[in-house]
Fold:
Amino acid sequence: MTVLNYINGAYQPPVNNLWLDNYCPATGTVYGKTANSTKKDVEQAYLAARDAFTKWSVTPLETRSRILIKISELLEKECSRFAEAESKDTGKPLQLAQTVDIPRAANNFRFFGNAITQFYSESHDSVGHNALNYTLRQPIGVVGCISPWNLPLYLFTWKIAPALAAGNCVVAKPSEITPVTAYLLGNICTAAGLPKGVLNIVHGAGKTVGKAIVKHPNIAAISFTGSTTTGAKIAQYAAPLFKKLALELGGKNPNIIFADCDYNQMLETTVASSFSNQGQICLCGSRIFIEAKIYDTFKKDFIDKVKQLNVGAPREATTNVGALVSKTHLEKVLHHIELAKNTQKILCGGHQVTVKGYEDGYYIAPTVIEVSNNSCITNQEEIFGPVVTLMPFKTEEDVLHMANDTKYGLSATLWTSNLERSMRFSSNLACGMVWINTWMFRDLRTPFGGIKTSGMGKEGGFEALRFFTNTKNVCIKY
Ligand code: NAD
Structure:
């Protein structure tokens, strides 16, 4: 598997002919190579995008819409092939890629293909002054989209689809750790009739390709999803160039459980919100706070369920928890577990797992840690793996304080049947998204994104189309 750049509608090797190894996390072996591009490749991609922009920016909405929907249909048709590729590249269970990642990637194109036909701009009648203001929302030009490894095609397309729908041309970079499905997407775009140069995909390292995209003087906006540390660097590069910036960053989300919730539904969903995708979803609820009166019952039931999770090869239908994405990430997660062992109590898991036939793969047992306070490092630092903490609380005030007492502010989950309490919490939780009696239920029209160090700017629905357009107000006096 050789992952080439997709520039000006064609696949090509990187200018300097440099390559990165691509690892299969399930086996820990190299199974392909990926273009290790440089600034020169980014420049080629930019020039192709710039040339394509003249036509694409004035292509009728119905035509753009039709092409995006066609991409969606082709992706749906190829769901199995893409799911296999995604699972192999990331270590996630094949079933998850088949039912979540690829269908959602297809849906992103369908959704924004439809959304652009409903997008509108404002007008203001300056009554009594014989003047009318109307606001144009115009494509920005060439924009950059940079995405992470945890939901590779899902998050890559979550940026590209609205950028293209709004009439921009794109220079995009998927994570170098999981580049394959973005590579395969090129052919689908060509087959769907996307004109050459409208989407360009450049593979390679963040510190070369990513940085070159962000620092490019003529790439006018950057949509980035990834870690808070990288987000800070991107903000630094972009600030002197006054680029439009959307940053979707890390999280340390609270999952707050009150005794009056629907217990069984909560328990089942909490297992999913803790360990789906090996806990490598920015929305996973990694800090679980449980009302003291049900703490012991919950602890027992939760651990029983977690112990039943099957850690195994991503291909196996019986696997619930697959491999972590890379050796480096595995070591980072294990390091956090070791730190926790010094001061906290490991209730289950807490170790690497050897899977028969996949001995060099990157597997960790789902880990539950009981913490005595929210200020410990385990509760404050994003681990982004199959690790959650449990802690009891007595009062609403205490748990609200702990939920908000973190530098992050991405999302929160609340379990209660008390309507007043849900209203109080949803108003007072310091984060961008709150789920009540559910988790990760997604309606693509809603604003998506965090506050504090979880990011700035929102994705989703018209928010994304607003991000990917510039406003221009026109005032006519008559
Ligand atoms: P990362 O920040 O290491 O990398 C993300 C992307 O940025 C990759 O494509 C990488 O190559 C690129 N990059 C790295 N350094 C760069 C630089 N100096 N300039 C430009 N680009 C650079 O993140 P990751 O490890 O791939 O992903 C995990 C992180 O992403 C976690 O923190 C997780 O919470 C976060 N995440 C957030 C959301 C969200 O919506 N808020 C969604 C998914 C993941």
